[in-house]
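Morning!

This is the sequence you dropped in the shared folder:
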Amino acid sequence: METVEDPIDTPHPFNSTLETGIRSLIVLEALYPRQCDLIELTWLDHIVVHTGDFGVDDVPKSLHPDLPNRTGELLVRRQLVERSLRLMQQVHLVTVVDTETGVQFSASEEAPSYLDLLQSPYSVQLKRRAEWMAKTFGGLTSAQIRELVENKIGRWTAEFRQEETVSGPANL
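The structure's back. Tokens below.
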């Protein structure tokens, strides 16, 4: 008798640790040599797939669908980004740097060679959006990016994410 996989137990390819890790790596490579902390990468991960939310000149269309509840994504995205960065560090694509202000991440020397291999339509579009994001927002400070996220996504969401990073997971 043939068994049928339970859809709950099957891996989800979208927003998996691997997909998020590759997105984070693409963002870090686009911003190189800039280093980012976890909260900043969480915000940038949202920005790179929802570029349309950040209506500035020459903004590319969002890569992911503009669903009504997408602003809530930041509330669950941090842990996924953190796991994905650990994965990318284990395969030597992300470098972790301890600084006076905390842990920072950057693309490793091996990252460009790996990213050159990614040629699917999704990967190409993601790289284009990351380049646009780096050109548009790369010169901003972390505080300015936070303000941008607060204005476009919502102050409560951005503050919740910042507070969670500083004090650990929020007690709900």
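Headline: The beta strands are 94-99, 102-107.

More detail when I'm at my desk.
O.
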